[in-house]
Amino acid sequence: MELYHVLSAEREWPVFSVPLSSGHTILVVYRNIEGDRGVDYLIHHPAWSAAETLAVDDGHFMGPGMAWPELLSTARQPATEGVADLDARLLLLFPTLGDARLPDDATVALTTALTALTVIEETAEVASMLLDNQGQWSPAHWRLADGVCINDGGHSYRNPGNAFALPEGRLSEISHALNGREAATQRTSG
């Protein structure tokens, strides 16, 4: 209950940072507005004027924000600040996942993280259930388009077919950052 009270305090919204090797940082913000509670998954780079939204987990959800390979890559990137533990990063960012094509070993990775950080008795069963029921959105189909990871999700900022999609330059930079690579193009400002 103590953790719940910290995460849901209206006066102080908890923010967890997940630094990436590209210089970007994913920010997980527990938005505690009465009547509009949710968790925002943002990505930012010091060269940008504002953070971009990867996913939103609330009553008006938006996502998915990551494919399984990106989630693993992001969790495995070394960090000396913010959330540095691989298992903690994986579980913290798991709600951004929406991937219709999961590898056979996805359950093993999630089970390992749950075993390391929770007191759940049947971690493999819980991991399997979580992977079967990803997020509030339908699991998306991800593909590479000119080296950029995009999806077909109807509520995703990373689907260039959506009117609210992130700009092409940002999609490229975010895709590279989540996969542990620098973007091939120069960073866009704005």
Give the biggest sheet.
4 strands, antiparallel
Distance between the termini: 40 Å
Radius of gyration: 16 Å
Strand order of the largest sheet: 1-2-3-4
Overall pLDDT metric? 91
Please indicate the percent range of residues in DSSP E strands (runs of 2 or more): 15-25%
Give the count of helical stretches: 6
> What is the succession of H and E elements?
HEEEEHHHHEEH
3D structure, described in words:
With about 190 residues, the chain is an alpha+beta fold. It has one domain. About 30% of the residues lie in helices and about 15% in strands. The protein is built from 6 helices and 6 strands; from the N terminus they run αββββααααββα. It has helices at about 1-5, 70-75, 85-95, 105-115, 125-130, 170-180; strands spanning about 15-20, 25-30, 40-45, 50-55, 140-145, 150. The chain has a 4-stranded antiparallel beta sheet, covered by helices on one side. The chain has a two-stranded antiparallel ribbon with strand order 5-6. β1 (about 15-20) and β2 form a beta hairpin. The longest helix has 12 residues, at about 105-115. The termini are far apart. Mean pLDDT is about 90; it is low at about 185-190.
